[in-house]
Design goal:
The protein has helices spanning 5-17, 24-106, 110-172, 196-199, 209-223, 250-265, 293-299, 311-318; strands spanning 181-186, 189-195, 229-235, 276-280, 301-307. It is of the alpha+beta class. It has a 5-stranded mixed beta sheet with strand order 1-2-5-3-4, with helices on both faces. Helix 1 (5-17) packs antiparallel against helix 2 (24-106).
Length: 319
């Protein structure tokens, strides 16, 4: 979903229709306000598109990682079978070679001797080719097993590190238990969910002092984790925004709340802005789809999604 620019046009049209009833100064002021609304909406759409692209890229990376690991495991099984077959062929040829040598020692006919020598040479040539194939298969199998072991080790290390980060976040926010903070993991990512009442007044986007204190503690943990990608998502309920001020709708409110949280995280100079994306999701990603007061309260939240850097893992897969 995208911000409806038509809403801005309607505002501008209303201003034009009322121009005859207001002063020129008021008319110009209204026009400027409508223009700012339009610019803000365009900026929100751009940020939302960037956020969707980043989420899609990380999800695709994770899927490719799992698919490559499965393929590596299947290739290893295939190579093991091929290696066993080549080993059996080599053993059979060696046995045939020994049998021909035994016959050669007891043969008296020159023609028979020449035929056996030719057969022995043919077998030896074939055996050399099979031994070369055996050596190549053993080397490929060894390389595959080493890559799988390295990949599994790296995945386990990523999972262990994410679990440590999760515990660090829980410890940092321990003083806010019961105030609407949840820290969970899903699909290899950490989700820090903060309820509206911890951060904002209803319909507002300025973070209150208690919420700012919690975000400052969280920023302290994030500052130490240089490899994490940070996505901040603002979410609203499904009741249309009807307040006043420089807010158009729930899309606009969710974006402003996300960027307000980002600015507090960036108060810590060790949090790299290039690792952060802000996005507004409006009411379209609810945690509870029921149309009840309790469900709407759950859906009014801000989520901070932490994703690991998978660049090193992808290098192993692509080599």
């Amino acid at each position: 979903m995208r911000i409806k620019i038509s809403t801005i046009s309607a505002i501008a049209l209303t201003v034009v229709l009322m121009a005859s009833c207001v002063t020129k100064e008021k008319y110009n002021e209204a026009q400027n306000l409508a223009s700012r609304y339009y610019d803000d909406a365009q900026e929100c759409n751009t940020k939302l598109d960037a956020a969707k692209v980043k989420i899609s890229e990380l999800t695709d990376e994770l899927s490719r990682l799992k698919a490559s690991a499965e393929k590596m495991a299947a290739d290893t099984v295939k190579l093991s079978r091929e290696l066993k077959r080549v080993q059996d062929d080599c053993a059979e040829m060696q046995q045939q070679n020994m049998s021909l040598l035994d016959k050669l020692q007891t043969s008296k006919s020159q023609e028979e001797v020449q035929a056996m020598l030719a057969e022995i040479q043919k077998l030896q040539n074939t055996l050399m080719q099979r031994e070369d194939s055996l050596f190549k298969a053993e080397r490929e199998l060894s390389d595959k097993e080493a890559r799988i072991a390295e990949l599994n080790s790296m995945i386990q290390e990523k999972e262990r590190k994410m679990q440590e980060i999760k515990e660090s976040i829980k410890n940092a926010l321990a003083g806010y238990e019961g105030e609407g903070i949840q820290v969970t993991t899903k699909n290899g990512r950490i989700y820090v969910s903060l309820d509206e009442q911890l951060l904002f007044q209803s319909g507002k986007w300025n973070v209150n002092s208690n919420g700012e204190a919690a975000l400052t503690k969280l920023a302290g943990v994030l500052a130490e984790q240089k490899e994490l990608y940070i996505m901040v998502e603002g979410h609203t309920d499904n009741i249309p925004y009807n307040g006043s001020g420089n807010i158009l709708d729930n899309w606009d409110l969710s974006v402003k709340r996300a960027t307000a949280v980002v600015r507090i995280l960036l108060n810590n100079p060790d949090v790299d802005p290039s690792r952060i994306t802000a996005a507004g999701r409006s009411q379209f990603c609810p945690t509870d789809a029921e149309n009840t007061a309790e469900a709407r309260q759950k859906n009014r939240r801000t989520e901070i999604i932490l994703s690991p850097n998978l660049d090193e893992v992808m290098k192993i897969i692509n080599n």
